[in-house]
Write a structure and sequence with these properties.
The protein is about 50% helix and about 10% strand. It is α/β, with parallel strands linked by helices and about 475 residues long. The chain folds into 3 domains: about 140 residues, Response regulator (Rossmann fold, 3-Layer(aba) Sandwich), CATH 3.40.50.2300; about 160 residues, Rossmann fold (3-Layer(aba) Sandwich), CATH 3.40.50.300; about 140 residues, Orthogonal Bundle (Helicase, Ruva Protein, domain 3). The longest helix has 29 residues. The protein is elongated, with a radius of gyration of 35 Å.
C-alpha cells in the first residue's frame, strides 16, 4: 500500500545536544525509518535546507538557539515537516508554547518507553499522509478542468467527468468503449486537454479506415524504398505524437499480426519503421477506443488477450444517448447555436413540437445522429423557429408511426377516440402517397373537399408529407 511505502521511506531528523540521547533514539528508529541527527538547532537547519524530513524530533532546551526557535523556523520554512518536542528540563510554559507553535507531540524525558516513541511517530506519519492525500485529491478535483468538448449534465456524464478528473493527470493507457456516435474521440480529447501532455500533440488515427499495410506505415513510419511508393523516409503517428497523446480509434478492426507489433510499442515504448533496422524510442500516451465488447472479442479469438490487458489499464464506458435522455435538450440547443452561426441564423430556436420529437426518439446513431439532424433542420429553417417541416422526413415519420402504434383508446369517449383515429388515419394516408391529396382521396374514398376540411380541423400540414419517401 502507498501509506506503508511512505512510512518505510520516511526521513526522521533527531535534534538533541546530548549524544547518548541521539544514539538511543537512532538505534530505536533505524530499523523502520531513515534517520539523520543534529547536535544543535543551527546544524538541524542546515540539514533541513538540503533534505526533506517528514518528522523532526527536537529537544526544547539546548545551548544557543533552543528548540522553540527551531520549531518556529521549521513551521515557517518547512511547514510540511511534522515536529515532536522532547524535553525533561522545559517548563510547562515552554511546553504549552511549543504546542501553540504547532508541535504535533510533546514527550517528557527520560523516555522510558521507547516503543511508545515509535507508536507516536507512526501516528504522526499516518495522520500527515492522510492529510496530504486528502489535499492532493482536493487539488486534483478543484483544479481548472477544461470540459470544452463535452456537453451534458446527466448523472452518467457527471460520473464520467469525475472519473476523467482523476485519471487524466495519471499518464496511463486508457480504453474508451461505447456505441458508434457517442463521442469517444471527444472524451479522448477531454482527457488529453486535462493531462500533463496538453501542451504537446494530440494525434488521432482511425484504425478501421486503413488497410493493415498502410496502417503499419502510418503508425510506425517507413524508410525510403521499403515498398512501392515509399519515395522518401517518413515518420509515423507514434513519432509525430512523441511527448503527447495518440488516440487509436476502432482498435478492434486491426489484425492480430498488427497487434503483436502494437504490443511491443505499448510495453517497451519502442517502434521500428517499415523497412528500418533500428528501434526508435517514443514517449506516447495511448488512448484507444472501440464500439465493441473487447472482452468478448478476446473470448471469441478476434483480439489478442495480451494487447487487451495492456490497453485496458483504465477504462471509460460512454453510455448511449437513449440512456441519458436528459442530455438531449442541452445537446440540441448547443448544436442549434453552432449551426446557427455557420448558416447565419443566430436567433434560431427549437419549437416545442420539434423538441418533443427529439426527446422521444431512440437515437440509434447517438449524438452524431442528433447533431446531423439539427444541422439539417437549421440549414432548411426559414422561420425564427425550427418546425416540423425542417427536420428530416424519416425522423417525423418514425415519430408518427411510434405515436400511432402506442395509441390507446381505452377509457376514451367514442367521439374523442374517433377523432384520434381519424387524424392518425389521414396522416398515414398522406405518408403513403407522399402528400398527394388526389391519390389519398381516391384510396380512402373520401372526397377531396372533405379531406381539406379534415386537414383544417386537425391542423395537418400537407406540404410536410410531399417530400417524405417511404423506407
Amino acid at each position: 500500500m502507498e501509506i506503508e511505502r511512505t512510512l518505510k521511506t520516511a526521513n526522521i531528523l533527531i535534534v538533541d545536544d546530548e549524544k547518548d540521547t541521539r544514539e538511543i533514539f537512532r538505534r530505536q528508529l533505524a530499523d523502520d525509518y531513515i534517520i539523520d541527527t543534529a547536535e544543535s538547532a543551527l546544524i538541524a537547519i542546515e540539514k533541513l535546507k538540503n533534505k526533506t524530513f517528514h518528522v523532526a524530533l527536537t529537544d526544547l532546551v539546548m545551548p544557543g538557539e533552543d528548540g522553540l526557535e527551531l520549531l518556529r523556523t521549521i513551521k515557517e520554512q518547512w511547514p510540511h515537516t511534522a515536529v515532536m518536542v522532547i524535553s525533561g528540563k522545559a517548563s510547562i510554559e515552554m511546553a504549552v508554547e511549543a504546542m501553540k507553535l504547532g508541535a504535533e507531540e510533546f514527550i517528557e524525558k527520560p523516555v522510558e518507553d521507547l516503543e511508545l516513541l515509535k507508536i507516536k511517530i507512526q501516528h504522526i506519519l499516518k495522520t500527515k499522509w492522510q492529510t496530504e492525500e486528502i489535499e492532493r485529491l482536493k487539488a486534483i478535483l478543484a483544479q481548472e478542468f477544461d470540459r470544452t468538448p463535452i456537453i451534458g449534465n446527466s448523472l452518467a456524464i457527471q460520473k464520467i467527468m469525475e472519473k476523467v478528473k482523476k485519471i487524466a493527470p495519471l499518464d496511463t493507457t486508457i480504453l474508451i468503449s461505447g456505441e458508434t456516435g457517442v463521442g469517444k474521440e471527444l472524451f479522448a480529447e477531454l482527457i488529453y486537454k486535462n493531462s500533463k501532455r496538453k501542451n504537446s500533440k494530440f494525434v488521432t488515427v482511425n484504425c478501421g479506415s486503413l488497410p493493415e499495410t498502410l496502417l503499419e506505415s502510418m503508425l510506425f513510419g517507413h524508410k525510403k524504398g521499403s515498398f512501392t511508393g515509399a519515395i522518401r523516409d517518413k515518420i509515423g503517428y507514434f513519432q509525430e505524437a512523441n511527448g503527447g497523446t495518440l488516440f487509436l480509434d476502432e482498435i478492434t478492426e486491426t489484425s492480430q499480426a498488427f497487434q503483436i507489433k502494437l504490443l511491443r510499442a505499448l510495453e517497451k515504448g519502442v517502434i521500428r519503421q517499415v523497412g528500418g533496422d533500428d528501434d526508435v524510442t517514443v514517449d506516447v500516451r495511448i488512448i484507444a477506443a472501440t464500439n465493441k465488447d473487447l472482452a468478448s472479442e478476446v473470448e471469441n479469438g478476434n483480439f489478442r488477450e495480451d494487447v487487451y490487458y495492456r490497453l485496458n489499464v483504465l477504462n471509460i464506458h460512454i453510455p448511449p444517448l437513449r440512456e441519458r435522455i436528459e442530455d438531449i435538450k442541452l445537446l440540441a440547443k448547443s448544436f442549434v447555436s453552432e449551426f446557427g452561426s455557420k448558416y447565419e441564423k443566430p436567433d434560431l430556436i427549437i419549437s416545442e413540437a420539434v423538441m418533443s420529437i427529439l426527446l422521444s426518439r431512440i437515437w440509434k446513431g447517438n449524438v452524431r445522429e442528433l447533431r446531423n439532424t439539427i444541422e439539417h433542420a437549421v440549414a432548411l429553417a426559414i422561420h425564427n423557429q425550427i418546425i416540423m417541416e425542417d427536420i428530416p422526413s424519416n425522423i417525423y415519420r418514425d415519430h408518427l408511426n411510434k405515436q400511432t402504434s402506442n395509441r390507446s383508446y381505452d377509457n376514451l369517449p367514442f367521439a374523442k377516440a374517433k377523432e384520434i383515429f381519424e387524424k392518425d388515419y389521414i396522416e398515414k394516408l398522406l405518408f403513403t402517397y407522399n402528400g398527394d391529396v388526389t391519390k389519398a382521396a381516391k384510396s380512402s374514398k373520401i372526397m377531396r373537399q372533405n379531406l381539406y376540411e379534415k386537414f383544417r380541423k386537425y391542423n395537418i400540414n400537407v406540404k410536410l408529407f410531399r417530400d417524405i419517401k417511404n423506407t
